[in-house]
Specification:
This protein is α/β, with parallel strands linked by helices and 393 residues long. Helix content is 27%, strand content 27%.
Length: 393
């Protein structure tokens, strides 16, 4: 089926942007079902690209700029390309690291698809109906291509478009194999348990690997507070880095339980670590200069543009509390994973918080997502993670 664009609206495709918005469509030939593969054509009927059709503001997510079959061979080729990149980054087939992102949506030419690898298991997440329908072919391609992966778990009930009308079962579950009851993965020589059945995202925030390693370099002798700790990633890196104490805070009791398990897995019953299930803002009200290294890694404050203003106020409020409470000579790692918040907007919110506190603050590092979360140069929207490391006098 063909989707014909309005005159001039093909220019974004000629610049290889992988999305077509509904306002660019002149007419649709036929009645494609959501998730179907469609041909995109200019106003004169010339072929431009192939992609998944969907209901909503983004009408088509592009899979290929050449005309070809979107079949098992296509999925295998794309997974192979993605795997080769991770091999070149020394993330795949690394004895000290068996955790990485295999597919990062548009960054790997597969918009609407996320795949994270944990040891012998891959967790597949679809953000479009087209990827949902292709999930079994994708899973088969993963086990054929990726050395050591035997299990593929599908986790998409919370990520698929709510408007979609599904014609088949959408429940989460194993597509291939089944992992052990408590799977253990490894990142840079540190072990952690992954709960992709009940946890957030795919079970672990793989995108903070490089930033956790950076924090390890600053942790020696410091008193560390890891806010929004989730499964404790920053905490156990800080402990390996020689922190004097590490306190992990999350509002979720289940997250705190998993953090404690992960710390124990690497350090046993180490008295340097304590974890607290409490609201982050309430906890920050009463820390009274106890910490000289604070990590602020909150969940996305804005998942859509309507929430942007409130999100920026939230980032300013959160960082202001940290600036007020951190010890002189302290270091603040602060992040935003909200895609709709730009790097400049986040920096302004943090700078405003610093000015509000009256502290002298210097930037040590400007952070982003790691190389296994690549950004398609034609799709700058893919750069979602931004962070700052700040020295607070």
């Amino acid at each position: 089926m063909n989707i014909i664009l309005k005159k001039g609206k093909e220019e974004s495709l000629r610049r290889f942007h992988p999305w077509i918005f509904s306002g660019a469509v002149q007419r649709i030939e036929g009645q494609p079902e959501e998730g179907a593969v469609v041909r995109l054509c200019d106003w004169q009927g010339n072929f431009l690209a192939l992609g998944h059709y969907q209901i909503g503001s983004i009408t088509v997510r592009v899979l290929s700029f050449v005309e070809r079959e979107i079949d098992n061979d296509f999925w295998k080729e794309k997974i192979t390309e993605a795997y080769r990149l991770r091999l070149s980054l020394n993330l795949a087939e690394n004895t000290a690291n068996n955790t990485y992102r295999l597919v990062h949506g548009e960054g790997d030419g597969l918009p609407g698809l996320i795949v994270d690898v944990y040891a012998d298991s891959a967790v597949l997440q679809a953000h479009s109906v087209g990827m949902h329908y292709a999930r079994k072919a994708i899973a088969e391609a993963i086990v054929q291509v990726v050395k050591g992966v035997k299990n593929v778990y599908y986790k998409s009930e919370s990520t698929l478009p709510f408007k979609a009308q599904y014609s088949d079962e959408k429940a989460d579950g194993y597509l291939i194999g089944k992992a052990s009851e408590e799977p253990v993965a490894m990142e840079n020589g540190l072990k952690f348990r992954v709960d992709w059945l009940r946890g957030q995202k795919t079970g672990f925030f793989v995108d903070q690997r490089d930033n956790r390693s950076l924090l390890e370099r600053y942790a020696k002798g410091r008193r560390v507070l890891n806010m929004f700790c989730y499964t404790g990633g920053f905490s156990f890196y800080a402990m390996r880095g020689g922190a004097e104490l590490v306190h992990s805070v999350d509002s979720s009791a289940k997250a705190i339980e998993l953090t404690n398990k992960n710390v124990a897995l690497n350090f046993g019953n180490d008295p340097r670590h304590e974890a607290f299930a409490v609201d982050a803002f309430k906890y920050l009200d009463n820390i009274d200069g106890k910490y000289d290294l604070i990590v602020l890694d909150p969940p996305a404050f804005a998942k859509h543009r309507d929430a942007l203003r409130n999100a920026l106020r939230g980032y300013q409020k959160l960082n202001a509390k940290a600036f007020e409470q951190i010890r002189p000579g302290g270091i603040l790692f602060t992040f935003s994973c909200s895609q709709v918040v730009s790097r400049e907007q986040f920096r302004l919110a943090v700078f405003s918080a610093a000015a509000q506190s009256g502290r002298n603050v210097r930037i040590l590092h400007q952070l982003t997502q790691p190389a296994d979360h690549p950004v398609n140069i034609y799709h700058p929207e893919g750069e979602y993670l931004k962070g700052l490391v700040l020295f607070v006098e």
